[in-house]
Amino acid sequence: MVVINCDMGEAYGLYKMGDDKALMPHIDVANVACGFHASDFNHMRKTVQLAKQFGVKVGAHPSLPDLQGFGRREMKIDREELTNCLLYQIGALKAFLDAEGLPLNHIKPHGALYGMAARSENIAEAVADAADVYKVPLLGMKGTLHQMVYERRGHTFVAEYYADLDYNADGSLIITREHEAKDPADAASRCTRAVNEGKTRSVAGNDVLVGADSICIHSDTPNAVAIAHAVREAVRPYLTAR
Question: Which CATH number characterizes residue 90's domain?
């Protein structure tokens, strides 16, 4: 079975990012920004309340401390400092979840941190260190180093497929600072293939192996709502009941 997740709650102060309310009916799980790449205390609580209204589960989407770069730039950071950075962010979100009577569903690192954890053992270990405290599943990419580390550390691993990002020939994600609009029908078709066959076509034209326990859509993709609608209709037979 499959769930659809979305990175959201990424507004900041008076600045808006994505249409979270329009996306909520099409998703099962919200990955809520925790203030270090986007969001703030007001938007975090508003997003949690919106998810509660629509019956959507909420997980933490912590980042490297990079508001200026939206968390999509890599940086050097040691294991202990990163663990503390993650505990700080996840704890803030959990306070808002506690206030609304909701559980923390999972943890999913954001942007550059996600990619770094897929390649660097120290970074993946730091993510697992934070997950040790909250004892919730971790989202990531199948066949990567972070899957090996998370599972070795005893954490439930949820394999993600990306509806609105491209894949390199080696199966790694192409993470851009700004996302481009994608054709909803093509995204839906790729998601269906990922679910059925565990494969997707890379930008080089070869097939790469993927996991699709959960399908991700980014709220900052320009036509995210249209993609989410098309993907949900395409994979509806495989969806886990809310």
Answer: 3.20.20.370
63 CB-near residues (< 8 Å, 6+ apart) = 33, 34, 36, 37, 38, 71, 89, 109, 110, 111, 112, 113
How far is the first Cα of the chain from the last one, in angstroms, to the nearest whole number? 12
Kindly report whether the global pTM for this prediction surpasses the value 0.85.
Answer: yes
State how far the Cα of 70 lies from the Cα of 72, in Å rounded to an integer.
Answer: 5
Query: What H or E segment, with its residue span, contains residue 99?
Result: helix 79-100
> Under 8 Å CB-to-CB from 15, ≥6 apart: which residues?
none
- How many helices (H) and strands (E) the chain has is answered by 8, 8
Q: Domain of 31?
A: 3-238
Over residues 173-212, the pLDDT tens digits come to 987 878 899 999 999 999 999 999 999 999 999 999 999 9
Q: Which of 108, 105, 118 is nearest to 148 (CA)?
A: 118
Element (H, E) at 134: helix 121-134
Total domain count, the chain: 1
